[in-house]
Amino acid sequence: MNAVYLAQDPTLADFGKDPWWLVLIKVAFAFVFAVLATLLGVWFERRVVGYMQVRPGPNQVGPMGLLQTLADGLKMAFKEDILPRAADKVVYFFAPTISVICAVTALSVVPFGPMVSIFGHWTPLQVTDVSVAVLVLLACSSMGIYGIVLGGWASGSTYPLLGGLRSSAQMISYEVAMGLSIVAVFMTAGTMSTSGIVAKQGDATQLSLFGTQIPAPGWYAILLLPSFVIFFIATVGETNRAPFDLPEAESELVAGFMTEYSSLKFALFMLSEYVSMVTMSAVTTTLFLGGWRAPWPITLWEGANSGWWPMIWFFGKVIALVFVFVWLRGTLPRLRYDQFMRFGWKVLLPINLVWILVLSGLRSIEDWDTQGKLIAVGVPAGALLLLTLLWPSRKPQPKETVQEQVNNRPHGSFPLPPMDLQVPPSPRTRRVVAEREPANVTAGSESREV
Amino acid sequence: MTTQTVLAAAGGVSGGEEVTFWILAPLALIGAIGTVAARNAVHSALWLVLSMLCLGVFYVLQAGPFIGMVQIIVYTGAIMMLFLFVLMLVGRDASDSLIETLRGQRTAAILLGLGFAGLVGGGIYRALEGTTAAGLTQANAEGNVQGIARLLFTKYVFAFELTSALLITAAVGAMVLAHIERRKQDKMDQIATMKARFRPGNYPGPKPGPGVFATSSSVATPARLPDGRLTERSTPDILPVRELTAQETSLKGTEK
């Protein structure tokens, strides 16, 4: 059974052998996937947020409002393209394109599935893979910042500039946390190629517990849980999504870096935001959630990880992660800027460093088997969990009543109205009531006769 | 082992490598010239970014995918971004003036620069003419990343650690210089601020606006309280109370 699965796993040697038309098909597929994901992603987000806020969301254009984004996009294309007089014209023009290109390029190293046969060619379902593919992803996301920063700067006004500066500071600091959580993946997988990392998450080690063979989980989301959590938080910061959408904080900065943008340039910024959300979900899936590999109950069926089926599991995982993005937006309020920075540098970074230290310590103990390692990790973790659960909570102080608080105020304090204040009815109201003539009396028979 | 590695290891220059080189080399050169020639500081930084990106691709072409990606992530993604951050804070109109303070300086600089480039290029060309690259296959035998890691953590570990110590010292030094020590007791938290605001004797409401019930719309005119007294609290302390001249009150024509 395992041999069949291993044959499906592409290795680095399987890449770079496609004819030109196959490369073209794969590139076009990745691009169309990005654009379609945006069209459906905006609809999905608006529907889900609508459901969470107990309202229908877009439901007029097309079945269930599916074509709403398309209609919005068409409308956007016909809007006036405004170029501010104080703008730096060339940079202003190129900034949205940089954003989009970087977001789409990252998809080229994401594995969508195993080896399949396309028109007789045995080829992996992935545009390309290199030995440093994860670094390519990081490079794309770090270059994507330029679009936002330059867009903010080139607009030539204050709010966009502030948004751009925020975004550069934010992305640099969250990239550090992101890179450190990938380090744990590199250490465990021993490779930087995306297809290699997916393959590594497939070989589950068999554990013997009480005589029965149990396949240990191979997903790095379980094995490297702290890295997974930190990585996902960092991707939310990296994609400028709520609660970390400070560069476009509409309550503080109007629309941040895209305040001055309109028409298709604005549409490009929208596109890049949603494409990078989908790309980051795909990357998280690849690095931590087993990529295109089927989750446990499906793997009981032998053909689950071969042929074209894995694409379904992959897209399912990506949609689930996009749902989490939307869920976060529907749930959490935006962080204040200093809280956000403190969280990145003083919480995520130290936890990540300590975790890497622990992980490398565990890995350096070579004479332990997997079971011993699991016990070494699991027992302290369980003890810690129990300790936090059973830790005695501080005894609450008996609280003063409001009346006591009012009575304890020193002399000369700001005057407060009495707590049992009865507002007397306004004398003016009484007068109006008294002066109003009964409606029925004047409508009587006398007036009609006169 | 990537296809690029195999190509570069073969010794000769392959077609794809040559095409990429001849497309990107002029771009890298244009970027380098633009860095010096651009008048606006941000444009200059952007030209440098172009140059660095081309260099990153060259590294990948030369069978060093790791160093190429690190060049793009670290230099272009992080360090140039910090440069841009500072440049944008300085202001977008900070352009260099074109007035030469030293006469003929620019011509001399161009001539000397061309001469220097010719000397270096010629020297390298003469020195490396006819030599064939060797040892790349052994260096990349167990993978490019693994090869670099082995060298960094065995042969060059001391230099590596020393560099990191130097960088950390610089970062800590910058932090110490920029840090303002504030004791925890000195900082007022939300509760303390509110308590101070509602302290007996303090007026917690907003200050009366300047010019309320007043005869003039000037900020310097103190507000009148409902009982007719003037209140000092309505005018800022730093504002000198004085009449403006006609020249001062006229429009200055500063709006764009």
UniProtKB/TrEMBL annotation, chain A:
<protein>
    <recommendedName>
        <fullName>NADH-quinone oxidoreductase subunit H</fullName>
        <ecNumber>7.1.1.-</ecNumber>
    </recommendedName>
</protein>
<feature type="transmembrane region" description="Helical">
    <location>
        <begin position="340"/>
        <end position="362"/>
    </location>
</feature>
<keyword id="KW-0520">NAD</keyword>
<feature type="transmembrane region" description="Helical">
    <location>
        <begin position="218"/>
        <end position="237"/>
    </location>
</feature>
<keyword id="KW-1003">Cell membrane</keyword>
<keyword id="KW-0472">Membrane</keyword>
<dbReference type="InterPro" id="IPR001694">
    <property type="entry name" value="NADH_UbQ_OxRdtase_su1/FPO"/>
</dbReference>
<feature type="transmembrane region" description="Helical">
    <location>
        <begin position="132"/>
        <end position="155"/>
    </location>
</feature>
<dbReference type="GO" id="GO:0048038">
    <property type="term" value="F:quinone binding"/>
</dbReference>
<keyword id="KW-1278">Translocase</keyword>
<dbReference type="GO" id="GO:0016655">
    <property type="term" value="F:oxidoreductase activity, acting on NAD(P)H, quinone or similar compound as acceptor"/>
</dbReference>
<comment type="subunit">
    <text>NDH-1 is composed of 14 different subunits. Subunits NuoA, H, J, K, L, M, N constitute the membrane sector of the complex.</text>
</comment>
<feature type="transmembrane region" description="Helical">
    <location>
        <begin position="308"/>
        <end position="328"/>
    </location>
</feature>
<keyword id="KW-0830">Ubiquinone</keyword>
<dbReference type="GO" id="GO:0003954">
    <property type="term" value="F:NADH dehydrogenase activity"/>
</dbReference>
<comment type="similarity">
    <text>Belongs to the complex I subunit 1 family.</text>
</comment>
<keyword id="KW-1133">Transmembrane helix</keyword>
<keyword id="KW-0812">Transmembrane</keyword>
<dbReference type="InterPro" id="IPR018086">
    <property type="entry name" value="NADH_UbQ_OxRdtase_su1_CS"/>
</dbReference>
<feature type="transmembrane region" description="Helical">
    <location>
        <begin position="90"/>
        <end position="112"/>
    </location>
</feature>
<dbReference type="Pfam" id="PF00146">
    <property type="entry name" value="NADHdh"/>
</dbReference>
<comment type="function">
    <text>NDH-1 shuttles electrons from NADH, via FMN and iron-sulfur (Fe-S) centers, to quinones in the respiratory chain. The immediate electron acceptor for the enzyme in this species is believed to be ubiquinone. Couples the redox reaction to proton translocation (for every two electrons transferred, four hydrogen ions are translocated across the cytoplasmic membrane), and thus conserves the redox energy in a proton gradient. This subunit may bind ubiquinone.</text>
</comment>
From TrEMBL, chain B:
<feature type="transmembrane region" description="Helical">
    <location>
        <begin position="20"/>
        <end position="38"/>
    </location>
</feature>
<feature type="compositionally biased region" description="Polar residues">
    <location>
        <begin position="246"/>
        <end position="256"/>
    </location>
</feature>
<feature type="compositionally biased region" description="Basic and acidic residues">
    <location>
        <begin position="226"/>
        <end position="235"/>
    </location>
</feature>
<dbReference type="GO" id="GO:0008137">
    <property type="term" value="F:NADH dehydrogenase (ubiquinone) activity"/>
</dbReference>
<keyword id="KW-0472">Membrane</keyword>
<dbReference type="InterPro" id="IPR042106">
    <property type="entry name" value="Nuo/plastoQ_OxRdtase_6_NuoJ"/>
</dbReference>
<comment type="function">
    <text>NDH-1 shuttles electrons from NADH, via FMN and iron-sulfur (Fe-S) centers, to quinones in the respiratory chain. Couples the redox reaction to proton translocation (for every two electrons transferred, four hydrogen ions are translocated across the cytoplasmic membrane), and thus conserves the redox energy in a proton gradient.</text>
</comment>
<comment type="similarity">
    <text>Belongs to the complex I subunit 6 family.</text>
</comment>
<dbReference type="InterPro" id="IPR001457">
    <property type="entry name" value="NADH_UbQ/plastoQ_OxRdtase_su6"/>
</dbReference>
<feature type="transmembrane region" description="Helical">
    <location>
        <begin position="156"/>
        <end position="178"/>
    </location>
</feature>
<protein>
    <recommendedName>
        <fullName>NADH-quinone oxidoreductase subunit J</fullName>
        <ecNumber>7.1.1.-</ecNumber>
    </recommendedName>
</protein>
<keyword id="KW-0874">Quinone</keyword>
<dbReference type="GO" id="GO:0048038">
    <property type="term" value="F:quinone binding"/>
</dbReference>
<keyword id="KW-1003">Cell membrane</keyword>
<feature type="region of interest" description="Disordered">
    <location>
        <begin position="197"/>
        <end position="256"/>
    </location>
</feature>
<feature type="transmembrane region" description="Helical">
    <location>
        <begin position="108"/>
        <end position="128"/>
    </location>
</feature>
<feature type="transmembrane region" description="Helical">
    <location>
        <begin position="45"/>
        <end position="61"/>
    </location>
</feature>
<keyword id="KW-0812">Transmembrane</keyword>
<dbReference type="GO" id="GO:0005886">
    <property type="term" value="C:plasma membrane"/>
</dbReference>
<keyword id="KW-1133">Transmembrane helix</keyword>
<dbReference type="Pfam" id="PF00499">
    <property type="entry name" value="Oxidored_q3"/>
</dbReference>
<keyword id="KW-0520">NAD</keyword>
